[in-house]
Write a structure and sequence with these properties.
Elements: H1 2-13, E1 36-40, E2 45-46, E3 49-53, E4 63-66, E5 73-74, E6 85-88, E7 102-106, E8 122-131, E9 151-158, E10 167-176, E11 179-186, E12 195-199, H2 203-206, E13 213-220, E14 226-230, E15 233-234, E16 237-239, E17 264-267, E18 283-291, H3 297-308
Antiparallel strand pairs: 1-18, 2-3, 3-4, 4-7, 5-6, 6-18, 7-17, 8-13, 8-18, 9-10, 9-17, 10-11, 11-12, 12-16, 13-14, 14-15
Helix pairs in contact: 1-3
């Protein structure tokens, strides 16, 4: 499979294609390396503090493994060259709290190492997901035992004015017209309206219980285009908000995201500052990638094959 993939790459790029650098453990497609802001494979704890994960991307943004620490790394890699994945889960569904296992980081003044998303024209989020428990999780913030969260938190880049929930770019499952849907959701302007691209297919078919799935979401803040992918193939869907929620009409051009550093990243639920629980995900994730450009469809396909090879 790896040889076939290299042949495909040569056909696309020419004979100058080289293998990925060891910095990304041979798992990142060469064409993505330059734009890879953050990459977390959960095989590289920070020396001396295993509750932090090293960033294998160019930004060096360390990721906090919140509430579970080093115990969140489990021997269940999503593909042959991966050892560990990250276990995310709700701990106590019966009481209000902030003990859910999630990951991320948060700073009210913005995270300078994520400045690549400051005034960004595009963005992408890619990674492996496996559902491992009840989803949506019970809503521990209400007194009603049967109440469930209206979303399942996956991975997102926070906006420059985020309270730990609002995002600039997000891959998640949310309610759309009364149904839970896999979505790409983004907000170009801090404090502005969001646009959502929602998958047509039932989310349980896209993310079957106990099965590793490679997901990708791409965002173009200039054109308004968004896309979803599953195991390297485009996912059919529709835009939810009518009109011009990103305010793309008129000058200035090109249209960019707000010129503010994101306040952080959130993985497996909202509020990475750990002030409360929100949209907990009973799932595992592996090899999460955050890029400051929209990945091409052929790159998503080849990235999936590259990891599977």
């Amino acid at each position: 499979m790896r040889r076939l993939l290299v042949l495909a790459l040569v056909a696309v790029f020419g004979s100058g294609v080289t293998a990925p650098a060891q910095a990304t453990s041979g798992t990142v497609l060469p064409s993505l390396k330059h734009d890879l802001v953050s990459y977390y494979d959960f095989d590289h704890p920070v020396p001396g503090d295993p509750a932090l994960e090293q960033d294998r991307g160019r930004s060096g943004t360390r990721l906090h493994l919140i509430n579970g620490g080093a115990g969140m790394r489990v021997r269940d890699g999503a593909f042959r060259h991966s050892r560990n994945s990250l276990q995310l889960k709700q701990i106590n569904p019966l009481s209000t709290g902030n003990d859910d296992w999630k990951a991320g980081l948060y700073s009210e003044s913005g995270v300078p190492t994520l400045t690549a998303f400051n005034g960004a024209r595009q963005a992408s989020i890619l990674g492996w997901v496996k559902m491992t428990g009840q989803n949506p999780a019970p809503n521990s913030n209400t007194a009603t035992p049967d109440d469930l969260y209206g979303a399942i938190g996956l991975a997102g880049v926070l906006s420059g004015d985020s309270n730990g929930h609002a995002v600039r770019a997000l891959l998640e499952l949310i309610q759309v017209d009364g149904e839970l849907k896999l979505v790409a959701l983004a907000r170009r302007l801090d404090g502005g309206e969001s646009q959502t691209f929602a998958a047509d297919d039932d989310w349980r078919e896209l993310l079957p219980q106990g099965e590793w799935v490679f997901l990708a979401a791409t965002f173009d803040f200039d054109t308004g285009a968004m896309a979803l992918y599953r195991d390297g193939k485009p996912v059919r869907g529709r835009y939810v908000a009518a009109g011009d929620p990103w305010r793309l009409e008129g000058e200035p051009e090109p249209d960019l995201a707000s010129a503010t550093d994101p306040r952080g990243l959130k993985i497996g639920g909202s509020y990475p500052q750990n002030t409360r629980e929100g949209n907990a995900c009973n799932c595992r994730m592996d090899s999460l990638m955050f890029l400051d450009r929209a990945v091409h469809p052929w790159e998503v396909r080849l990235q999936h094959l590259w990891m599977k090879g």
